[in-house]
Inverse folding.
C-alpha cells in the first residue's frame, strides 16, 4: 500500500518541468522536502517565541548518540534516534520545571552531556565514526520509504496539535503564570510540544544535518516575524517560506552548475529570504 501511494505521488512530481525530477530519488527527496520544510518552519515559530534555539541544537546533537547506540547494540538508528531525542527533550523540560536554573543553563547541561556521550560511544568504535558523516551534513536525497511514512505521521500529529494548541502556546510564551490563571494546562502543552519538537528536529537532521538543523527551524520563523502583523499571519508565512526555500534549495542543488549539498542550499535560500524580509522591515513606515 505504501509503495503504491509513493509511486503515485512520485509520478505527479515527475511531471514537473525540471530534468532532475525525472530521477526517482529526486522525486522521493521532493516529497521529503514537502513534509520536512513546513514541519520545521511551523515548529520554529514557538522556538523563536520561546527562545529555544539552543534546545534544538541539543536535540540535533543527540543524533550522534542515538545512531551510535543503535549501531553498537544492533538496533535500528531509526528507533534509537527518536527515542533518545524524546528522552532528552522531556528531560530538559522536567528539569526546567523542577529547578530554579535558567532555561539556557538546563539546556547547556544536557547539550554537553549529549555531545560528550555521543563522542565517547563513537570513539569506542571506529566503524561507527564513518557512518556519522551523513548525520553531520544531512542529505535529503537518501530519504527512504519508511522515512516518508514516519514524516507523514509526524506531520499529521504535529499540525493536529497546532490546531488545538497554537493560541495556548502563544499565551504560555507571553506569560506562563497568566496562562495558568486562564486555566491553560501549561505543563501538558509544554511537554507535548517539546516531545513533538524533539521528533521534528531529529527527523530534520536527515535533511539539513546536525550543523544546520537549527537554521531550518529558526530562519523561516524569523523571516516570517519580519513580514507578519499578527501571530496567525506569522504561522502561514513561515510555512510558505519554509516550503519555498526547501523546494528552491533542492532544485538549485541538483543543477550541474551548482552541485551543492541539498541541506546547505535549502538553508541558504531561507537566509536569502530572511535578508529580503529585513529590507521590508526597514522600508516599512514607522507608526507615529
Amino acid at each position: 500500500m505504501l509503495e503504491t501511494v509513493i509511486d503515485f505521488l512520485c509520478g505527479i512530481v515527475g511531471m514537473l518541468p525540471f530534468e532532475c525530477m525525472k530521477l526517482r530519488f529526486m522525486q522521493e527527496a521532493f516529497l521529503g522536502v514537502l513534509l520536512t520544510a513546513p514541519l520545521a518552519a511551523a515548529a520554529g515559530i514557538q522556538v523563536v517565541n520561546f527562545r529555544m534555539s539552543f534546545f534544538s541544537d541539543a536535540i540535533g546533537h543527540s543524533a550522534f548518540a542515538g545512531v551510535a547506540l543503535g549501531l553498537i547494540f544492533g538496533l535500528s538508528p531509526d528507533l534509537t534516534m527518536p527515542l533518545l531525542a524524546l528522552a532528552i527533550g522531556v528531560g530538559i523540560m522536567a528539569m526546567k520545571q523542577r529547578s530554579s536554573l535558567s532555561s539556557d543553563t538546563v539546556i547547556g547541561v544536557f547539550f554537553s552531556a549529549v555531545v560528550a556521550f555521543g563522542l565517547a560511544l563513537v570513539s569506542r568504535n571506529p566503524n561507527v565514526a564513518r557512518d556519522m558523516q551523513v548525520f553531520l551534513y544531512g542529505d535529503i536525497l537518501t530519504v527512504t520509504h519508511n522515512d516518508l511514512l514516519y514524516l507523514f505521521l509526524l506531520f499529521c500529529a504535529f499540525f493536529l496539535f497546532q490546531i488545538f494548541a497554537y493560541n495556548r502556546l502563544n499565551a504560555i510564551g507571553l506569560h506562563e503564570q497568566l496562562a495558568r490563571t486562564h486555566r491553560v494546562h501549561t505543563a501538558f502543552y509544554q511537554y507535548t510540544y517539546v516531545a513533538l519538537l524533539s521528533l521534528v528536529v531529529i527527523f530534520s537532521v536527515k535533511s539539513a544535518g546536525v550543523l544546520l538543523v537549527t537554521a531550518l527551524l529558526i530562519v523561516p520563523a524569523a523571516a516570517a516575524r519580519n513580514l507578519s502583523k499578527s501571530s496567525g499571519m506569522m504561522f502561514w508565512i513561515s510555512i510558505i517560506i519554509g516550503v519555498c526555500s526547501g523546494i528552491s534549495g533542492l532544485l538549485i542543488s541538483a543543477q550541474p552548475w551548482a552541485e551543492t549539498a541539498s541541506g546547505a542550499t535549502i538553508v541558504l535560500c531561507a537566509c536569502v529570504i530572511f535578508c529580503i524580509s529585513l529590507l521590508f522591515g526597514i522600508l516599512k513606515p514607522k507608526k507615529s
Remarks:
- The CA atoms of residues 2 and 146 lie 9 Å apart.
- The chain is about 80% helix and 0% strand.
